[in-house]
Amino acid sequence: MINGSNARTYRLVLLRDGQPELDRITQIGTDHGLLLAPVRVPSDGLVLASAERADLLIDFSDLAPGSLLTLLNTATAPFDGTSLPAADAQHAADLDGLLPYPQVMAFRVAPGQGTRRTIPAELGTDYFPPAPEALAGAPRRAIALVERELDGEPNMLTMRELAIANDDDTGPLVTVVDGDRTTRYRTLAAHFEHTTTFFPMLDEYEVWQLINLTSDTHPIHVHLDPFQILSRRPIRREIPEDGIEDLNLTAVVTLERDPQDELAHTIDDNERGLKDTIRVNPNEIVEIAIRFTTYSGRYMYHCHILEHEDRDMMRPFVTMPAELMPFMS
Predict the structure, then answer these.
(1) Which residues are within 8 A (CB) of 232 and not within 5 positions of it... i.e. 6 or more apart?
(2) Which of 37, 73, 81, 94 qualifies as a FRET site for 182, CA 20 to 30 Å off?
(3) d(CA 217, CA 280)
(4) In which band, very low, low, confident or very high, does the pLDDT at 196 lie, cut at 50, 70 and 90?
(5) Tens digit of pLDDT for each residue in 282-304?
(6) What is the predicted pLDDT for the residue at 327?
(7) How far is 241 from 228, CA to CA, in rounded Å?
C-alpha cells in the first residue's frame, strides 16, 4: 500500500460486522523493503501519511465465503497525530474533520480452498539498527519545522536549518533545553533558494533532529537513501509573538511534555524498518540516523504534503565522497 494523496493522512482499520479485525493484518515491510521481523499494526489502525508505504499480509483463511470486511479511515484532516480507538471506527465520519466518507474499500471472501501460511520469524537480513559507537561521533543536524502567518496571503511553511550558536551570539536564537543541557542555535537557512548548508559525506552516519514547531503532523521525506528512526520525544515550545521572521527564528524548546499534549510520542513497531518518510507530530522531536551510500550530487528533503512543499517546506543537500572533505572547511 502507498499513500498517494496530496495531503491526507490515513489511519486504516479493518472491520467485520462492526468490530475491528486488526489481528488479521501482519505488516512485513515498510518504505524500503522488509522489516527485520513481522509485526502487528498499531492497535488503533495503520497510519500512512503522504508517501508512506506498507507491505501487508491479511489472513482470510478462516472466514466463510461471502464474509464482508470493510477498511475504514479514521484520520481527520489536517492530521495532528490524535488517536481514535479502533472500536470507534464506525463513528469516524466527521464533517468538521473533512472526513464525510470514511469507507476506503471492502473485501468479500470468495469460495475456495483456504490455506493458512506461516510467516517467517526473520525477514530482512540486509540491514541492522545502527550501533551506538557508529553514532557517537556522527554529525548532528537540527531542523525546525515552522509555519509563519502572513496577512492576506497563505501561510509560509519552512524548514529552518540550524547551527550551534557561538557564545557571543545575541541575535534571534532557538534554545533547546534537555534536562541540565542547554543548546543554542542560530538559523542558517529557511527558504529553498538559500545557500546549501548540508554536505553529508558518503558512507558516514549522520543524526538529523526534526523539531516540529507547528500544529500539524508533517511527513518528512528524504531523497536518495533510507534512514532509521532513533527516537520520538515530546517537547514544550515557547515562541514570542514576533519570533518567526522571514529568516530568523526565536523559540525556546524544552524536552518535556506540554500539559495540553495528549499524544503518545512512541515509535510504532512498523516504523523500525528502513524508511524514507517519517511523521513528525506536533509537540515532538524526531531523531533519525541516515547514511548516504550510493551517489554524489544534489538532492532534496521536504515535507511530502505537496501543498506544504510548494509553500517552501523543502531544502537541498549535497552528498560527496570523503575525498572532498579537505575542501569543505
Answers:
(1) 265, 266, 267, 281, 284, 285, 286
(2) 81
(3) 5
(4) very high
(5) 999 999 999 999 899 999 999 99
(6) 66
(7) 35
**Secondary-structure breakdown of the chain: helix, strand, coil percentages, each rounded to the nearest 5:** 10, 40, 50
d(CA 138, CA 227): 14
Residue with cell 505537496: 306
From the CB of residue 161, how many other CB atoms can be counted at a distance below 10 Å? 21
Length of the chain: 329
List CB contacts of 64: < 8 A, sequence separation 6 or more: 109
Burial of 120 (0-12, 13-18, 19+ CB in 10 A): exposed
Single-letter amino acid, residue 178: D
CA 284 to chain CA centroid, Å, is 11
pLDDT of residue 322: 84
Report whether 271 contacts 30 (CB < 8 A).
yes
Q: Are the CB atoms for 130 and 289 separated by under 8 Å? A: yes
- Does the pLDDT of residue 311 top 80, yes or no? yes
Specify the residue for cell string 530568523: 248
Q: Which helix (H) or strand (E) holds 252?
A: strand 251-254
What is 147-193 written as a DSSP string? EE--TTSPPEEEEEEEEEPPTT--SS-EEEEETTEEEEEEEEE-STT
Task: Output the CA–CA distances (angstroms, integers) from residue 245 to 43, 66, 150, 172, 238, in the order listed.
Answer: 41, 59, 10, 9, 15
